[in-house]
Amino acid sequence: MSHSPSNTKRYLTLLAAFLGWMFDGFEMGLFPLIGQQSLRDLLGESATADDANKWFGSIIAVFLVGAASGGVLFGWLGDKIGRVRAMSFSIFIYAIFTGLCGFATQPEHLAGFRFIASLGMGGEWSLGVALVNEIWPDKSRALTAGLIGAAANIGYLLAAVLSMVLLTYLAPLGDLLHAVGFSPETTKYLLSNSAWRLMMISGALPALLIFLIRIFVPESEKWETERDRGHTSHWANADLLGVLVGTLAALAIIWAWSPVGTPNGWLAIAITCAGLAVALVGFLHPVRRYLARSEAAGSFSHRHNESIVKMMLFGAGLASVALLGTWGSTQWASKWAAKLAPDPALHAKEWTLFWLSAGAIVGTMLAALAAGRFGRRITYVALCAASIAGALLLYRTNSAYTPYFLFCTFIAGAATASFYGFFPLYLPELFPTAVRATGQGFAFNFGRIVAAIGGLQTASLMKVFDDSFPMAATVMASIYLVGMGIIWIGPETRGRPLPE
Questions:
Q1: DSSP notation for 21-85
Q2: Which of 398, 446, 3 is nearest to 250 (CA)?
Q3: Which end of the chain has the least Cβ crowding within 10 Å, N or C?
Q4: Which DSSP state fits 365?
Q5: pLDDT attached to residue 4
Q6: CB atoms within 10 A of CB 8
Q7: Would you say the C-alpha torsion 368, 424, 134, 488 has a positive or negative sign?
Q8: From its phi and psi, is residue 258 left (phi > 0), alpha (psi between -120 and 50) or beta?
Q9: What is the CATH number of the domain that holds 122?
């Protein structure tokens, strides 16, 4: 007979998902901080600012494509073999390959390692959210969603703090490394250019989480019930070919807009349109094949299956708006702050990320609680409106790095990151247990491909506006207007239990 997990197991599950997503945030926050130094190191002093901007945007875009692919891949794995086993593997992937970024010798190496690491990051979100929602009772979903959303932003904040500490104590740290046996050459290798390599290597620490998860975290009984019914047997390894094709199509888009791609703008646009269509079909392929087998076995009806696909596309639309708004504007804010305050002693990049993250922690908690209290659709509209206002406040009322600038970053962070407390609540409510990890993984992470494509245009827009990042970011923020319309297509799920 099925029984509810103990409170201890619930809290351990929440802790594992919280820590996993927190370290995700830590590693996502690293590149906006160290991207400029790492590219200066890898490209050489002869590289132009435009070269660096294009590589910066391209590496962020490659990361987003990898996270999108990982969300589908590990979501599929979680629905097939269980949430806990798949989540352990995803954390191992993102920890190890983030650490390997510290040994890159070319921008292409950095992009490649970030891509593989992001596969695990995208998967960890899908699996952790599914697991927590299935183990915790319905009445707690808003609070746990807010905590998971806040976790990533605590990770961003930790990245900012670690960077400031390292930059402040580089000399004593060098002495310590010498004392424990590191050669002068190795010490210089690790600490040069603001210790960006050491920062990346520190990203391997989350691998320790695997032991916590494998030993203490219980598997979802809802998933085990689906397994016992035979529903998990309808997933087939061959279907992952669609994910591979979709990933390659998305990477072709990144290549078309990257510094190593084609200079022909019209050709890049054509590759983008075709690649996006292929990626959409490829990422949907495993779920469509699973649903077809389930329908043939009498598990699901055709109408039920079509509804699942529609919810996947709807969720992807919502996530695309939020992710494009964030990665196309606020993720560049630290880089902009460094330009406004070039004196390294001010730690402008780090303090900008710190206050963006602090605002985001508040915003994610408030968004989840508001959606639980007032409803999902009206809350999403309010978040879009607040994000437009926050972006305009930051980018249209600042021209210097001042305390007011940091206050505005706090407000903008609270608004634009609030969606990451909303999605862990709403997306699991759109899908039944058998396809929850894959469905929400696709919905949230396919939005990252759209964000990657749009984010690549930030550098192009800067050229249009005479290297004005505030103007480019303001244009990117207009995407939130689209979200205000999309949300009304979907269901209002407030007060409803998770679909079985």
A1: HHHHHHHHHHHHHHHHHHHHHHH-TT--HHHHHHHHHHHHHHHHHHHHHHHHHHHHHHHHH-HHH
A2: 446
A3: N
A4: H
A5: 59
A6: 10
A7: positive
A8: beta
A9: 1.20.1250.20
Distance from C-alpha of 110 to C-alpha of 21, rounded to nearest angstrom: 22
What pLDDT shows up at residue 261? Answer: 63
Q: 3-class SS at 4?
A: coil
Question: Is residue 498 in a domain?
Answer: no
* CA–CA gap between residue 381 and residue 363 (Å, rounded): 14
Residue 499 lies in a domain: no
Looking at residue 499, the DSSP 8-state letter turns out to be P
190 near 177, Cβ under 8 Å?
Answer: yes
What local confidence, expressed as pLDDT, does residue 399 receive? 87
Beta-carbon contacts of 455 under 8 Å, excluding residues fewer than 6 positions away, are 57, 60, 61, 64, 324, 327, 328, 331
Residue 253 contacts residue 271 (beta carbons within 8 Å): yes
74 neighbors 89 (Cβ within 8 angstroms): yes
Give the pTM: 0.83
Whole-number Cα distances in Å, 137 to 46, 49, 212, 217, 423: 57, 51, 22, 16, 17
Amino acid 233 reads S
Least Cα distance to 433 among 493, 367, 380, 497 occurs for 497
Q: How far apart are CA 62 and CA 133, in angstroms?
A: 29
Give the pLDDT band (50/70/90) at residue 268.
confident
Q: Show the tokens assigned to 172.
A: 């004593």
Residue pair 128/441 in contact (Cβ under 8 Å)? The answer is no
Look at the chain and report how many structural domains it folds into.
1
Instruction: Name the 3-class secondary structure at 390.
Output: helix
Residue 470 forms part of a structural domain: yes
The amino acid at 251:
L
- How do residues 382-430 score in pLDDT, each as one tens digit? 999 999 999 899 988 998 999 999 999 999 999 999 999 999 999 999 9
- Per-residue pLDDT band at 5 (split at 50, 70, 90): low
Provide the token pair at 487: 């949300």
410: in domain: yes
Residue type at position 37? Q
Domain that holds residue 282: 7-213+220-489
Question: How many whole angstroms separate alpha carbon 314 and alpha carbon 302?
Answer: 18
- Copy the structure tokens of residue 381: 């509209």
pLDDT-derived band of residue 373, with 50, 70 and 90 as boundaries? Answer: very high
